[in-house]
Write a structure and sequence with these properties.
Helix content is 40%, strand content 23%. It is an alpha/beta fold. The radius of gyration is 17 Å and the shape is globular. This is Nucleoside-diphosphate-sugar epimerase.
């Protein structure tokens, strides 16, 4: 599988490139700063210089062409509400349009819990971030792509243990970035897990089994007679 990672120079993007390569896949990491080239290459990805804000859908589509899936892991990361709108919001819309133009069928968006960090007094900037994330999800769900939205719990550094909880609705707890990344790799290879929003936290279930379980939970139900 060839996967195009938007936000390829970020922590999740680089970890994902490494995990995909270990799985036998090919990862292309899009980055906007030429100085990030080596970091992506060192992680096992193929660097692709591109700008989510400056480039139109056609230019992004030319970078995505030939890939099987797009993973959107970019984010404004506290650089202000305007950047949040441009990257976490309009950036998803533009990237989804580009994926359609390029004929890339799968699109996985790393999003956030709807009630993430509530009650901690994080202010209007954070509320704006959550509103923008919800809007991006709405836009993606209205496309014809085989979309998947993954809402991770509060992200923690360090090695994972290969186990998570995954479901349509969970109480938010922490999750290791490494476990989230391996969940994404497994989800990309699951033809049954598509067009659904999945929440992921730390938990007791091996990742491959967690993906299979949530895929079964969203599938067709037998009719009771």
């Amino acid at each position: 599988m060839k996967v195009f990672i938007i936000g390829g120079a970020g922590d999740i993007g680089r970890r994902l490139a490494t995990a995909l390569r270990a799985n036998g896949d090919i990862a292309t990491g899009m980055h906007r700063d030429a100085q990030q080239h080596d970091a992506i290459e060192d992680a096992g990805g193929i660097p692709a210089l591109g700008d989510l804000i400056e480039h139109g859908a056609d230019a992004l589509a030319s970078l995505m062409a030939g890939h099987d899936a797009v993973v959107f892991s970019a984010g404004a990361h506290g650089t202000g509400t305007d950047m949040t709108t441009l990257i976490d919001g309009k950036g998803v819309e533009r990237a989804a349009e580009a994926a359609s133009l390029a004929g890339v069928p799968q699109f996985l968006l790393i999003s956030a819990f709807a009630d993430s960090e509530r009650g901690r007094g994080l202010g209007e900037d954070f509320e704006h971030y959550i509103r923008v994330k919800r809007g991006a999800e709405v836009v993606l769900t209205r496309t014809d792509l085989d979309w998947l939205i993954v809402r991770p719990g509060h992200l923690l550094p360090g090695a994972g243990d290969g186990r998570v909880s995954a479901g349509l609705a969970l109480r938010e707890t922490d999750v290791r970035r490494e476990d989230l990344v391996h969940f994404i790799v497994e989800a990309l290879h699951s033809s049954e897990l598509t067009r659904v929003i999945v929440e992921v936290t730390a938990g007791p279930t091996p990742i491959a089994e967690a993906v299979a379980q949530v895929a079964r939970s969203t599938g067709p139900r037998p009719i009771s007679r």
